[in-house]
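Researcher: Next sequence.
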Amino acid sequence: MTAPVLVLPDAREPIEVYCDTSKMGLGGVLMQRGKVVAYASRQLKTHERNYPTHD
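Model: Next structure:
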């Protein structure tokens, strides 16, 4: 996954992490002060769709 940096993060401020998955893909966003710092998403490969979703 590659994710472009949209705003420079400030190490003194808290960072919020949002993520979501589906049977077809996954994605995540890092936010700080309500602005997107970075994001990434991708489709799952065929074999990854067979991974268990719990321990």
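Model: The longest strand covers residues 35-43. The radius of gyration is 14 Å.
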